[in-house]
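JOB MANIFEST
job_type = single_chain_structure
chain_count = 1
residues = 369
[input]
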Amino acid sequence: MYKNLAAALAAACFFTPTFSQTSPTAPAPADPLQVGFVYVSPVTDAGWTRQHDDGRKAVEAALGAKVKTTFVENVAEGADAERVIRDLARQGHRLIFTSSFGYMEPTLKVARDFPDVKFESITGYKTAPNVAIANARYYEGRYLAGVAAGRMSKTHVAGYVAGFPIPEVLQGINAFTLGMRSVDPKAQVKVVWLDVWFDPSKEREAAMALFNQDVDVIAFHTGSTAVMAAAQERGKLAVAYHSDMRKVAPDAQIAAVTHQWGGYYTQRARAVLDGSWKSGSVWGGVKEGMIRVGDFGSKVPKAVQDEVMARQQDIAAGRLKPFAAVAADVRDNEGRVVIAKGQGLTDEQILNMNWLVDGVQGKVARRAP
């Protein structure tokens, strides 16, 4: 499918047999599937965009000459994104991955004008006949990182540098806090909101400010390695996000929560090639291999590493759910019960999360129901 099928059929209809003493000409190879990727930040050595570009390379490695990939980096959400996505569709890309939440609406708009192109909105939540959505359960990795942070912190205070207060980020902050408090009930998490996904100078400044407030371990939900570099400079500990960042922070890194996109991207490209692609929604986590915690730093005792890995296996097996209240009610940081004892959140409730759990210092604007 999507290999100039109409032209091939037309040629077959008008082919007139001729007789010749020579061997028949071998059929021309099919054109490769053009696959486009749109990135919200530059491709750097580590981070959100690095992981997506690794996924792109995995598609090339798996499918070889069957595909040809293109990427456009550092594309702002909004009008710029629509222009870039539209250009890729016009250039003949038959599958386009748009890897940022703010690309969702531009993707849907372009998709309406190119019904024969397949689009994958990564972290979006709206589908269309030719637009699928995919995301990962980042919060599962965040919970595990919280366990490691809880074991390693001496001040019982962690920092968290965050981009925007959308549900995905709130899930991560809350899961990290619950994981940390599962091994250190006194733990507190201080959050700084940046209202930007990628700004190394702001990320660094926020980290430094948190280190001045008794924070000795830090996590983040932004796109660069600046927080890790700041932790290395200050002699603090940090949880890497998106990628293994030991190259930047060899002494600071406790562990890394890494995103694994290659398998999903390859599967979706294969589906376009064989004609089985359908719109839908995928939300995979540790079990599906989309989220992994590991890459422990040299300062992390083996006992802590073993504990985190055991809990990762529990999550994969369904024995541990970060947003389940086992021993007591879970309350938000304003005292309201958000998960009753013996209950757990549904996927819909997790996807619409708009509160911060007890132990988090800060507030988030309430959204209309």
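[summary]
Residues 30-136+261-284 form a domain with the Rossmann fold fold (CATH 3.40.50.2300).
The radius of gyration is 23 Å.
exit_status = 0
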